[in-house]
Amino acid sequence: MRTFQSGPALSIERLEIIHGEPANSVFISPEHQEDFVSKLKQRCPQMKIEGSIRS
């Protein structure tokens, strides 16, 4: 996701993680998005991915 929305992530190439009830969100900018998402999917197989992941 590319966004200029303010947040602690330094890059505009960031991921938004939405979690919990009620829903909370956080923006992060891992150096290797595909690897990060792959490892997160292993730990949380029920997660949903919306949009595209950039390498």
Describe the protein in words.
By secondary structure, the protein is an alpha+beta fold. Helix content is 20%, strand content 18%. The protein has one helix and two strands. The chain has one helix at residues 33-43, and strands at residues 15-19, 24-28. It has a two-stranded antiparallel ribbon with strand order 1-2. Strand 1 and strand 2 (24-28) form a beta hairpin.
Secondary structure blueprint with pairings:
Elements: E1 15-19, E2 24-28, H1 33-43
Shape: globular
The overall strand count is 2
Q: How is the largest sheet built, in terms of strand order?
A: 1-2
SSE arrangement, N to C: EEH
Report the major sheet.
Answer: 2 strands, antiparallel
> What is the straight-line distance between the termini?
11 Å
| Global structural class | alpha+beta
In the predicted model, the low-confidence regions spanning at least 5 consecutive residues are: none
Averaged pLDDT: 80
Provide a count of the helices: 1
Q: Into which percent range does the helicity of residues fall?
A: 10-25%
Percent of residues in β-strands: 15-25%
Report the C-alpha radius of gyration, rounded. 11 Å
Give a quick precis of the structure:
The chain is α+β, with helices and mostly antiparallel strands and 55 residues long. It has one helix and two strands. The longest helix is centred in the last third of the chain and has 11 residues.
